User: Fold 1,4-dihydroxy-2-naphthoyl-CoA hydrolase from Rubripirellula tenax.
Amino acid sequence: MMESAEHEMLRSLGISVLPKSVDGEDPISWPRVAANCDYQAAAHFEDLLQIDVSVSKIGTSSVSYLFQFSRDGSHVAKGTLTAVCCRLADSGLLKTAIPDDVRKLFEKHL
Ligand SMILES: CC(C)(COP(=O)(O)OP(=O)(O)OC[C@H]1O[C@@H](n2cnc3c(N)ncnc32)[C@H](O)[C@@H]1OP(=O)(O)O)[C@@H](O)C(=O)NCCC(=O)NCCSC(=O)c1cc(O)c2ccccc2c1O
Assistant:
């Protein structure tokens, strides 16, 4: 659920989760390196949960998110996730600095 919420947030900022290569440049994506979730109340099958996503930290190449889960206005869980900005090179994932334009978009959600 956190990954889906993260992807929705990226899309809302106009950031593709897995863009196509343009002009032979390596596309950039966001593999996750850490995730955690604290459950504060039970959620049941078919419950409709709201997930509020915010950015808790922007590093050089990493971005951390906070996820607040609620049901009918009551807190259910709190999660965190850290992803790293990477070039999808032929050799695999290579860490790279978060581009300035993307950093500015994330800063709006700090
Ligand atoms: C992602 C890596 C390639 C980075 O490796 P590297 O060794 O270069 O990174 P650093 O150790 O220097 O850390 C970079 C950056 O992250 C912060 N960080 C690292 N670990 C943690 C942690 N546990 N908690 C918090 N923060 C952490 C560190 O402080 C640095 O921050 P700065 O801001 O200071 O730069 C390499 O780590 C790697 O490959 N990891 C495995 C990733 C993985 O397989 N994850 C499992 C889920 S799969 C996934 O999420 C995924 C998503 C995609 O979108 C993909 C797209 C295309 C292909 C594959 C994808 C994919 O597997």
Observations:
- The first helix runs from residue 2 to 12.
- Helices lie at 2-12, 100-107.
